[in-house]
Write a structure and sequence with these properties.
Length: 860
């Protein structure tokens, strides 16, 4: 019998023993024959057969090496399999040449062109089209890890592959398109220098891709221990893909009466579509024919393109509904911080389909959570305590639990269904036993259980005045179990009943799912659902749950915000200034109002009034949560005069007790004179894990007491200045150009001014800086145990206007170390503290609070 000839499309799908066969070796020899001098391979060829004479006589352009359409990556994967099965010097040499080709082809910015050596035109753009760059990154990722079949690659080459992957990730993050400060998606190709979306063929205009972006997100989700920037990129792209999904439609290949290919769009309530191209700025699907003209109607382009190009697809469906939730679950499992596990039924469960208006309250609870807490929602539609246990879902949660985690248990809606044996659990026996089992098993793992009864159904009495209870004895049993086992009990049935009744018969419909026929594409027949929640309803119920955590004074409560700011519109506010202005004011002793600021660039100025100081802003991460403006002193104000220094801050704080965690505060006016990122006049103001960026006068601490912990601050002239008592604890100070770090204006009778404890000073190459100069005569600045790089000038301090200030300025150091910390050449009029004097510079003493636990002390 004649041996079956390998189809190159199946080259990577053969059984393991095939790669050790003579046939496998013969195909490998053919593959090597196509390898170009540069080390790469051409595309769209059957590499299973040796090159023909026609191949060598064809146009040279047909033999250009590329990463398009699986070229280079597929032959490399094939050779690696053969080399692993039957090691050979020629396979090894081909592998190494191919990997060197990929490494050499990478741009300095981390991207890859479609062709290398470079060809003119769109071929030289950074190419995500058809997953070209993602294929390269995945291959190099496997090479770095040394996984089978890459074990034959030496350590040096694996290390270089890993570095190429890291640079590639940086390119992906840098090319992700922002709209109004919010991360969205990617174009199929980007310009090399500007990184902006680029045009390719006539029908591939600069746009956002609903196809290639999915492959990029999948790659980012494959990264181990993702950085905050990677997390923000994934979340931004998934949100955008959800927002631009086309609900209730499918796209099918068809042929017309003449047999020519075309595509037909059809209504399909269970399906969603994505367009290949979305218009930059508007996010409208666009369709482009060979004439290069964008159309908003698919049927306005020529049939040849409609049938021959993929303008529509379900590309993001599984990624959003399956892979993204699993990725978030993996982040929770990897978290060193506490995890709140949610177990329950559909009213709590996540609804990942982006076009589905139904949301679970647990899904919206996650929006209020503050890191390091992760919320891992295992609630599932249609489940009861019985089915949740029987299906192994409870065992899965138990397997994830660690000491310090929390488990919120809420069942009942389905346990009460006697007509469904798979879920029915009698209230006083099986249901009770299941709850007790969950509580005891969670505690055995060191986790802390919480119990809640089912939320109320929207069932009104005949008068339309009160809800009718529908859960029988089930809420009572939950309460009894909570009391018996001393488990915190959340009054969710009572609270949701009050919520419904406060809205009235008609108003309460907004909490649920009420749609007329034809109003909702995924439910064209209409919908009247009084059990499940809309986005608004789920969010309100999530707030009720958080209020209960606070009422019960549970430690878990500190990990939840009262309000959310999101640039993408998914929060309570889209502006930091709005959120601050709308925060409630209460009498002294009122709990601090906590605002989560989600990933995004917020180009605005924010002012914290005196009466609004009892607020804490918490960003998702300083690297990805940025408050920025570009106002500088030389700009003209509305009065026709220059603004001057003190009217330029991006963030101005007059409120007492105001706090900011994990945000970047920046002024990006550049080196144009004074431009404040921050001005603080309020007392007891705290900044933790923040980044401050500017040039001249980055931070103005005018008056009051302020605590900066673990912050990064950059600038070049007087970029930390003012007359306040401000402590900088474990901060990183970075100098952009020659200049001065501090310019204190401490009042004469004030003991302390600017105090730096255990900080680090660095700078750009070649930069030289002074530690400070006295803006006012009695300036006080101390650096204690500071690591100083060579950027610090040997003399250390400058007198600004002349020798007279050397007599009054109070400049001191203790324990300075590093190249810039040498004592020998320091100015004689500065002081070196004794060990006793330095030990007295404790935060509590500096602020003279008289309190055992200072408001500025590290967070509990």
């Amino acid at each position: 019998m004649k041996a079956k000839v390998l189809d190159w499309d199946d080259a990577l799908r053969q059984p393991g023993e095939w790669y050790a066969s003579a046939e496998g070796a013969a195909v490998a020899e053919a593959v090597l024959a196509y390898q170009t001098e540069s080390g790469g391979w051409p595309k769209n060829l059957d590499l299973s057969k040796p090159p023909s004479e026609a191949y060598w006589n064809d146009s040279e352009s047909r033999r250009y090496a590329t990463i398009d359409n699986g070229a280079t990556t597929t032959p490399l994967r094939f050779l690696a399999r053969v080399n692993e099965a039957q090691a050979s010097a020629q396979w090894q040499d081909g592998l190494e040449r191919g990997l060197e080709y990929l490494l050499e082809a990478q741009y300095d910015n981390g991207g890859w062109p479609q062709f290398y050596p470079l060809r003119k035109g769109y071929y030289s753009h950074i190419t995500y089209n058809d997953d070209a760059m993602v294929r390269v990154l995945r291959l190099l990722q496997e090479v770095e890890q040394g996984k089978s079949p890459w074990g034959q690659i030496d350590a040096g080459l694996r290390e270089r592959a890993g570095e190429a992957v890291r640079r590639g990730v940086e390119c992906i993050l840098a090319t992700q398109v922002r709209q109004d400060g919010q991360l969205t998606a990617w174009c199929a190709q980007h310009q090399v220098d500007s990184l902006l979306p680029a045009k390719a063929r006539a029908y591939e205009l600069p746009s956002l891709s609903g196809a290639e972006s999915v492959g990029i997100v999948r790659f980012l989700m494959s990264l181990e221990d993702p950085s905050p920037r990677v997390v923000a990129a994934v979340e931004g792209a998934v949100h955008w893909l959800g927002k631009v999904a086309i609900p209730g439609m499918s796209s099918e290949r068809v042929r017309d009466a003449e047999g020519k290919r075309d595509r037909a769009l059809k209504k399909a309530p269970k399906e969603d579509l994505w367009a290949r191209f979305y218009e930059l700025g508007t996010n409208r699907p666009i369709f482009v024919g060979r004439d290069g003209v964008a159309h908003y109607d698919f049927y306005e382009i020529e049939q040849e393109r409609r049938g021959g190009y993929g303008y529509y697809g379900g590309w993001a469906k599984d990624m959003i509904s399956k892979e993204y939730p699993e990725w978030r679950r993996r982040l929770a499992l990897q978290s060193a911080g506490p995890v709140l596990y949610l177990v329950g039924d559909s009213t709590m469960a996540d609804k990942p389909r982006p076009t589905n208006p139904e949301k679970g309250w647990g899904q919206l609870l996650r929006e209020f959570a503050l890191l390091p807490l992760r919320v891992d929602n295992h609630a599932m539609n249609g489940r009861s305590t019985k089915s949740f246990i029987d299906e192994g879902r409870w065992d899965e949660v138990l397997g994830r639990l660690k000491a310090g985690d929390w488990v919120l248990i809420q069942f009942g809606h389905n346990d009460e269904k006697e007509h469904k044996p798979a879920v029915y659990a009698e209230a006083h026996t099986t249901y009770r036993d299941n709850l007790m089992r969950m509580v005891s098993e969670a505690r055995a793992k060191g986790a802390r259980p919480l119990l809640a009864p089912s939320v109320a159904r929207r069932k009104w009495d005949e008068a339309g005045e009160r809800l009718v209870p529908t859960h029988g004895d089930y809420p009572k049993v939950v309460r009894e179990v909570a009391a018996e086992l001393e488990v915190p009990f959340l009054e969710m049935e009572a609270l949701t009943t009050r919520l419904e009744e406060s809205r009235g018969v008609e108003g309460s419909k907004r909490l649920h799912l009420w749609y007329e026929p034809g109003e909702l594409a995924i439910k064209p027949e209409g919908l009247s659902d009084d059990t499940h929640y809309s986005w608004e309803g789920a969010r309100e119920v999530a707030r009720l749950a958080i209020a209960e955590l606070r009422r019960l004074e549970l430690p878990l409560a500190k990990y939840f915000a009262d309000a959310v700011v999101a640039r993408d519109g998914s929060g309570d506010w889209s502006s930091v200034e709005q959120a601050i202005y709308k925060a409630p004011q209460g009498p002294e002793g009122t709990p601090r109002w906590i605002i989560r600021v989600k990933h995004g660039v917020y180009r605005e100025r924010a002012y914290v009034q005196r009466e609004r100081g009892n607020i804490r802003l918490v960003g998702d991460a300083a690297e990805t949560t940025v408050l920025v403006e570009g106002i500088h002193a030389n700009m003209m104000g509305p009065d026709g005069k220059k603004l001057g220094t003190f009217r330029t801050p991006t963030l101005q704080v007059d409120g007492e007790g105001f706090e900011v965690y994990s945000m970047t505060i920046a002024n990006d006016a550049g080196p144009v004179g004074q431009a404040l990122a921050l001005r603080v006049d309020g007392d007891r103001v705290v900044f933790r894990d923040c980044v401050f960026k500017g040039w001249q006068d980055t931070i103005f601490v005018n008056r009051g007491r302020h605590y900066f912990e673990n912050c990064y601050i950059e600038g070049h002239v007087d970029f930390i200045f003012g007359g306040a008592v401000s402590v900088f604890d474990k901060c990183h100070i970075h100098c952009l150009k020659n200049g001065y770090i501090t310019a204190a204006s401490t009042p004469a009778g004030q003991e302390h001014g600017l105090v730096f404890l255990d900080c680090r000073i660095t700078g750009e190459p070649g930069v030289k800086t002074y530690l400070g100069r006295p803006w006012r005569a009695h300036a006080q600045t101390s650096f204690v145990r500071t690591e100083m790089s060579e950027v610090v000038r040997p003399e250390g301090w400058h007198n600004w206007t002349g020798p007279e200030r050397e007599k009054t300025a109070r400049y001191a150091e203790f324990g300075s170390f590093g190249p810039g910390g040498e004592r020998a050449d320091r100015v004689q009029w500065a002081t070196w503290l004794s060990e006793r004097e330095a030990s007295a510079l404790q935060v509590n003493a500096i602020f003279a609070s008289g309190e055992q636990v200072l408001p500025f002390a590290p967070m509990e």
